[in-house]
Design goal:
repeat; transferase
Amino acid sequence: MKNSSVLHTPDTPRCDWDFKLSAVISSSAPASDAIGVLEFDHTNSLLATGGIARKIRIYNAENLPKLNEGCDYYMYTPAKLSSLKWKPGSGSHLIGSGDYDGVVIEYDLEKRLPVFERDEHGGRRVWSIDYSAADPALGASASDDGTMQMWDTRCEAGTSVASVRPDRAGCSPVCCVEFNPFGGPAVALGCADRKIYGYEARKMAEPVFVLEGHEKAVSYARFLDSETIVSSSIDGSLMTWHAEERRIIRRYRGHVNSRRFVGLSVWRGGGGLMSCGSENNRVFVYDRRWGDPIWACGFDAAAPQHQGFVSSVSWRQTAGDCCTLVAGGSDGVLKVFEGRRRD
């Protein structure tokens, strides 16, 4: 079934892609099974999902377009999940999670057991975790307690490599953390004080850059390339930034986001496509070259827009003229979209 819901306005940017809906995957669970996070592994062969249901579900990425419901397997977790991250270099066997109870747990998928745990946020929700691509034993967690904790899985639990409080005056929650996936030493934090902070992973005392421009809390920050950061805020916009020059490149508007986490994902192999969810129950795609969306799709045409929202998105990080975007909804449903570059 082909979907061609490109936004047609006089200022519509050029869309070089055709997207179609290729699968709808039901969780076979109550509507309270909201999906909070989607994460493809580093080999692009597995997709993990987490959220309110206290489960990590694992899907074979190659089978996604063929599925109608169900996953390959799942594991129960002790709390609701807000973040998942595959551990680099683990052969897709290890995945870390951050939960509503403020705990970080690393799971061995072969054994289906937790193998590492950290509890350094005083019971305050962990919004985001990440691992360093340069040193996969090094991880970080961002929390409602106003701190980012950096830790080493080779060390005993309770021992932090570094603890950072970006908003020293107001103790604003840290909403997201990401190491530079291109191998650089930088780690970026997005905070409720409307700022994005960049740190040198080996020298965490002071930020090396602070990016200001959002009007409300920054919910996500992602590296689009080694120098460009994409951020999302509950001010209803995305922004791209030149980190080294500390300047805004472009602001993106079209989706609706005033109070929820709606996901942000960048397709690094596809010429700069970005995607996010929306509180009007649609999934949006932006091209880094234009401030307006190049494509949007309603998530559930049968339900009124105010009854649901798109809560998470993830690109499969493949290269070439074809792409896969997965979006998750507050109703627990996954939708898989296939894109093909136009001739």
